[in-house]
Design brief:
144 residues; alpha+beta; five-stranded mixed beta sheet; two-stranded antiparallel sheet; 17% helix
């Protein structure tokens, strides 16, 4: 289960809109060791399929509901300790992929995630342009 602002995040209450809700930035906490992982995840991905001889783009929901990060070490810990020993918190809901990338980087740098042994993060990769962050203002980058 995911938490947002200390409440269970239930998209059924206000259905996810693939035109608005692109993804989120999150932190996963190992409740046994206290170690954390900061990452981002898309709600939807695009697929192209053939419909009546024409290619058509469709959006399908990603595996975000069961996702525990892309880091091999955290995945191994989840496998060994069980999902109940991890808490998944959504820090930001994002309206663009660049917004997700920027806010993920901001959290990783602010928390010194790749320098601290208290984080699973072991690399940072980002590609963001200013024009994709039009909606984002300085006041918006405070975590939930």
């Amino acid at each position: 289960m995911w938490y947002y602002r200390n409440e269970v995040f239930d998209p059924a209450e206000g259905k996810l809109d693939p035109k608005v809700d692109v993804g989120f930035v999150y932190v996963i906490t190992n409740l046994v060791s206290g170690k954390k992982y900061i990452g981002k995840k898309r709600f939807f991905s695009s697929r192209t399929k053939q419909v009546k001889g024409k290619k058509k783009k469709t959006k399908i929901e990603s595996d975000w509901r069961s996702y525990y990060g892309s880091n091999a070490a955290i995945q191994e810990d989840v496998k060994n300790l069980g999902e109940s020993n991890f808490r998944r918190d959504i820090l930001y809901l994002c309206n663009s992929l660049s917004e997700c990338s920027y806010l993920e980087l901001k959290e990783q740098v602010t928390n010194q995630a790749i320098l601290s042994p208290q984080y699973y993060n072991d690399w940072i990769q980002i590609k963001v342009t200013r024009k994709h962050l039009k909606r984002l203002q300085l006041s918006d980058v405070q975590p939930a």
